[in-house]
Write a structure and sequence with these properties.
Largest sheet: none
Oligomer: single chain
CATH architecture of one domain: Orthogonal Bundle
Number of strands: 0
CATH superfamily of one domain: MetI-like
Radius of gyration: 25 Å
Structural class: mainly alpha
């Protein structure tokens, strides 16, 4: 079979696509590469350098990482983030699959009205102050992990994707299961969920990334420092001008003010890398589900 010869216009279009995708790739990778290169740089040389760096400047060092891992707040932040991630994703998936199954059934009373009301919440909400009063005063969830998991238990976007995926499954499977005496829970967890693994894997990643990067809700509702997640600790380190931002800063600098700033700058870059690598490592395991899962959830109605 001979190859199809492309016209001049098609070749120009391909070159434009390659150039555009290369530019987008560069824009995405450049900031991450800069942070990684800076985290291994010598702090004095790093302070002297301005602009983009492509390779660690000065003598390569891992001192920044050593001080980050010696900071107890980093480990407590990791622990709290993992607890919130596990609890939150479990609640998210359970509630989203239940809601998606209900909305995908044709015989549910006021199905279309329920769908419209849920979609309405994508564009309008009660606001931050009413939400805070509800969670803090009425539900008494302050300083509990429930405050950062229950209010956002269902993402409307993910719910619609899940509903569409369940709706694409043939009705004959559900009818056959009901003839065999299966109830809705058996149909959902033994038929719908196994047949929608690709979509649920994508939704899981969306929820996981959301919980991993979240810090604002934790800042509002988790007043105790022992409950702070990693991203909130990272935020405090990045914006802090206090010498005590890292508990080990004194031991690095021996009281020299200029070296304090250098060490703090290096620690900031190292903390960003430490807090970002785990969630990036999750992507390769779920990447194969992306195309299939998103296509099922967005194309079929």
């Amino acid at each position: 079979m001979t190859g199809i010869k492309k016209s001049t216009g098609e070749r120009i279009f391909d070159l434009f696509n390659y150039a555009l995708l290369s530019l987008i790739t560069f824009i995405c990778i450049a900031p991450m590469w800069y942070v990684i290169a800076a985290s291994f740089s010598h702090p004095i040389e790093l302070m002297k350098t301005s602009g983009m760096i492509w390779w660690p400047v000065g003598q390569k060092t891992v001192e920044g990482y050593m001080h980050v891992f010696r900071n107890p707040n980093i480990w407590s932040g990791y622990r709290n983030t993992l607890v919130i991630l596990t609890l939150g994703v479990s609640v998210n998936l359970f509630m989203t699959t239940l809601g998606g199954y209900v909305l995908s059934r044709q015989n549910v009373l006021w199905n279309k009205l329920l769908t419209l009301l849920i979609i309405f919440t994508m564009y309008f909400s009660g606001g931050m102050i009413p939400s805070y009063l509800l969670i803090a005063q009425n539900l008494k969830m302050v300083n509990t992990f429930w405050a950062v998991t229950i209010p956002g238990a269902i993402s409307t976007y993910n719910l619609i994707i899940c509903r569409t995926a369940f709706k694409a499954i043939p009705d004959s499977l559900e009818e056959s299961a009901k003839l065999d005496g299966a109830n809705d829970f058996i149909i959902l967890f033994r038929i719908m969920v196994p047949l929608s693994k690709a979509t649920l894997a994508v939704i899981t990643l969306y929820y996981a990334v959301g919980h991993w990067n979240a810090w604002f809700q934790a800042m509002l509702y988790l007043k105790k420092a022992a409950l702070h997640p990693l991203q909130l600790i990272l935020r405090q380190i990045l914006i802090s001008n206090d010498q005590n931002a890292m508990g080990t800063t004194d031991s690095i600098t021996s009281g020299a003010e200029d070296l304090v700033d250098m060490a703090r700058l290096l620690v900031r870059f190292c903390t960003i890398v430490v807090s970002t690598v785990p969630i990036l490592a999750l992507y390769p395991f779920l990447q194969k589900y992306f195309v299939k899962g998103v296509m099922i959830g967005s194309v079929k109605g």
